[in-house]
Amino acid sequence: MSDTRYTPARAFRLKDVVQWDFETDVAIVGFGGAGACAAIEAADAGADVMVFELASASGGSTAMSSGEVYLGGNGGTRVQKACGFEDSTDNLYNFLMAAHGPQADEAKVRAYAEGAVEHFNWLVAHGVPFKDSFLDKRAIVALTDDGLLYTGSEKAWPFRDIAKPVPRGHNLQVEGDNGGPLLMKILTENVEQRKNIHVHYDTRTLCLIADENGDVHGVVVRIDMKERFVRARKGVVLCAGGFIMNKEMLQKYAPKLLRGNIPIGNPGDTGTGIQMGISVGGAAINMHEGFMTIPFYPPGNMTFGIFVNAMGQRFINEDAYHGRVGTFAIQQPGDRLYMVVAAEDYGNFDRKPFFNGDIVGTGETAEELEQELGFPPNSLAHTINFYSEHAAKGEDPLFHKSPQWLKPLNPPLVAIDATPERGAIFPCFTLGGLDTLPSGEVLMTDGTPIKGLYAAGRTAAGIPRRGDGYASGTSVGDATFSGRMAGKAAAARK
């Protein structure tokens, strides 16, 4: 029979603690990018730190990512400047606010915009390598060791009219999609070098320990099948990830993400950190939002195509970031989603597109493709012909696609099934979490901070708040930055 005394949904009462098995200044739950940075900053501020990690090694979701870090402002990072790009703090702020509004956290965005260059310098000082080179091509992730690329919708409407387009995706100097593992290797080495940080692997954090006022005093953990009581004199920092692996929470908070078929996260992304925060009165916000993408390139030529819904209508400018396209895609009515592209731009017919969709129709004319797919007369054909007529003039009156990606859809045409339920790849993750101050302090529903409790990374509702404005690197950037802020704040608590 399972022990029901310990659950993340209910804090253990301080008065029921018989003895403390461990005592430390700062207890950190989770050893991904956020937890590592929180531990380093807390330790460097003079605090004794204990890190509790469910897995047998560090990493979390950060190690599973591409490792891109979204950075800029303050005139630009070293890499941006070396590549000829200038970036102001207001420009970065304006983009992030537009991308993640209306629920964007103004204080957090401002703090990040003002601190992003310093954060870049901090990462470099701790051994994270970035090459001073620019990858000037449309890519999902950098498979080269180039240090800078566009990773969002900066050059696409409407964002190009709100903020000057500047590349901010900082890719670690490593070839292939290996930035996340390298970043965590470096951060882990930094943690291991500090004698006042003690890491416990294979450890499940069961619940918070709180007094009658809701103030947090520690955690209950399970090590070697035995419950241990950990006193945290200054605070607990929750860095336990999101809830993409918890179907019950997804159904309750973000059911649209259940249409995704590739959850992006680690097995520990079950929402326990969020549940622990809620157990002491913490507010969980933005829980309905998530990232859902359709990675329809490479090759970049696929961007010349158009997406259409079950009514044969376009719904997005296809030069937008693939996450924005994916978010709009799952909002469409009906159960059909197609990408229509000229055969010359599709390329090799023997190879499936990057998003794994099947070719379900071809046509020597728009009308022929329309008939083959079973659309009503002059529905899909009208969409294709209208688009091509204006593309020939370098314009897109409906969705303002950049002229760089505009050209008529000249037959023969190919239709690819992009419906997630029929095999198309739709990776996804959550963007909701505990409400926090920029310092990482967890807030109650009335805006009052909970004494002794902090959260960072995907356990908190951070900078990225909307899938349709997401840019690659904002999660890693936010996780490492917010982890640092929470670690420093916890160490400074009296």
Note down, in words, how this protein is organized.
This protein is of the alpha/beta class and about 500 residues long. The chain folds into 3 domains: about 10-65 and about 180-290 and about 425-490, FAD/NAD(P)-binding domain (3-Layer(bba) Sandwich); about 70-175, no CATH class; about 300-420, Flavocytochrome C3, Chain A, domain 1 (Alpha-Beta Complex). About 25% of the residues lie in helices and about 20% in strands. The protein is built from 12 helices and 21 strands. The chain has helices spanning about 35-45, 80, 90-100, 105-125, 180-190, 245-255, 270-280, 320-330, 345, 365-375, 380-390, 475-490, and strands at about 10-15, 20-30, 50, 70, 150, 170, 195-200, 205-210, 215-225, 225-240, 260-265, 285, 290, 305-310, 340, 360-365, 415, 425-430, 435, 440-445, 450-455. Strands 1, 2, 3, 7, 8, 9, 10, 20 and 21 form a 9-stranded mixed β-sheet that branches. The chain has a 4-stranded antiparallel β-sheet with strand order 14-15-17-16. A 3-stranded antiparallel β-sheet has the order 4-6-5. Helix 1 runs parallel beside helix 12 and helix 10 packs antiparallel against helix 11. The longest helix is centred in the first third of the chain and has 20 residues, at about 105-125. It is elongated and about 80 Å long. The mean pLDDT is about 95.
Keywords:
single chain, Flavocytochrome C3, Chain A, domain 1, 21 strands, 26% helix, 12 helices, elongated, 3 domains, alpha/beta, 494 residues, 9-stranded mixed beta sheet, FAD/NAD(P)-binding domain
